[in-house]
Amino acid sequence: MVIMNQAEEIIFANGIQFRMIDDPVVVEVLALREAINWCRDHAFTEVRFEGDAKVVIDKILLADARDNQMGAILQEFIQCFACNPGFSVRFVGRHNNRVAHLVARKALSLYPSMSRVFDYQTWLNSRM
User: What Gene3D superfamilies does this protein's entry cite (predicted)?
Assistant: First the structure.
C-alpha cells in the first residue's frame, strides 16, 4: 500500500502480509480495504484509489458485490464510495504503476520471511 499526495510524493508506504491467502485477487481486495481504512482513520476526504486487479475495480465501479469469496468486502467498498463523494477508484495496469509494482516485487522477494518491521518508506525513497 502506497499513499501519495497530489505532487506524487510518498507520504506513507506499508507492506502487509496476509498469511494463508494464495489468491492474488483476494489479497488485492484486502490491501484496498487497508488503504481505505488508513485514509478514513487519517481524515482524508479526497482520495483516488488505484489498483491493478481489473476484476476488483470493475466490481466496485459496477456496484457488483456478487462474489462468494469477497462479496461482503466488496459491499463495504460500494457503500464507502457512495458515502464518501471525494473517494474514487480506478484501474491502473501494473506497467503504468511504477511505485506499486516496486513495492509488490519487493514484498514477493521477502516472502515468506517478510517482517512487519521492514521499512518500505526508506526502501522506496532509495528507489525514487
Answer: Ribonuclease H-like superfamily/Ribonuclease H (3.30.420.10)
